Amino acid sequence: MASKDLINKLNLQPHPEGGYYRETYRSEQTLTVAEEKSRNVSTAIYYMLEDSDRSRFHRIQSDELWFFHQGEPLEIIFLKDGEAHTIILGNDIAQGQLPQAKIEAHLWFGSRIKSGSGYSLVSCTVAPGFDFSDFEMADKVLLQQQYPHLKEVIEQFT
C-alpha cells in the first residue's frame, strides 16, 4: 500500500513535529502528576514519516514507547548524558533493529527514515498520557549552546 493510501485509510493528520499522526487511544482513567496536573493514564497514536520527513527534536514529560509496524526502518536520535544516541526501529532483529523502543521522559529526540525514502509506520504510547501542554519543540540556538559538539545532528533535527 502506498503511503498516501495509508494516510487516508488511517485518517492521519499533519503533526507539529513533522510527519502524520492520529490518536487511537486515550484511557478513561486519570491520575494526578506533578503540579497537581491531571493526566490520562495512557495514550497511543499511529505515527508515520515519508521520504525525507523528519520528526524534529522535541521532548515530553512522560516516557514514550515506540512500536514498528511496517515500511522502512526508522532511526530515532535522542540526546542523553551530553551525547547523541541512535535506535533503529524495524523488524530485522539480526541487524540490530528493534521492534519496540523506549524514549525516556525529558530527553530531546527526533526521528527519520533511515534510508531517506519510502515510509515508516509506527505507534507510540505515552504513560502518563500525552498532553500537548507537556510538548516542547527544541530551539536550535539554545540546543547548540548546550551541546556545541552536537551542532551537526542538532542542525538536522531542528
Can you summarize this structure?
By secondary structure, this protein is mostly beta strands. 13% of the residues lie in helices and 47% in strands. It is globular, with a radius of gyration of 16 Å.
Could you say which structural class the secondary elements and strand pairing correspond to?
mainly beta
Give the biggest sheet: 6 strands, antiparallel
Shape: globular
Report the C-alpha radius of gyration, rounded: 16 Å
Distance between the termini: 30 Å
Give the integer mean of the pLDDT values. 95
SS field, number of helical segments: 3
Kindly estimate the percentage of residues that lie in beta strands according to DSSP. Answer: over 45%
Instruction: Going across the biggest sheet, name each strand in turn.
Output: 1-2-5-12-7-10
Q: Helix coverage percent of residues?
A: 10-25%
N-to-C series of helices and strands:
HEEEEEEEEEEEEEHH
Number of strands: 13
Runs with pLDDT <50, length 5+? Answer: none
How would you portray this structure in words?
With 158 residues, the chain is mainly beta. Helices cover 13% and strands 47% of the residues. The chain is built from three helices and 13 strands. It has helices spanning 3-9, 140-146, 151-156; strands at residues 13-14, 20-26, 30-33, 37-40, 43-50, 54-59, 63-71, 74-80, 83-89, 100-103, 109-113, 119-127, 136-137. The protein has a six-stranded antiparallel sheet with strand order 1-2-5-12-7-10, with no helix packed on it. Strands 9-8-11-6-13 form a five-stranded antiparallel sheet. Strand 1 (13-14) and strand 2 (20-26) form a beta hairpin. It starts with a helix and ends with a helix.
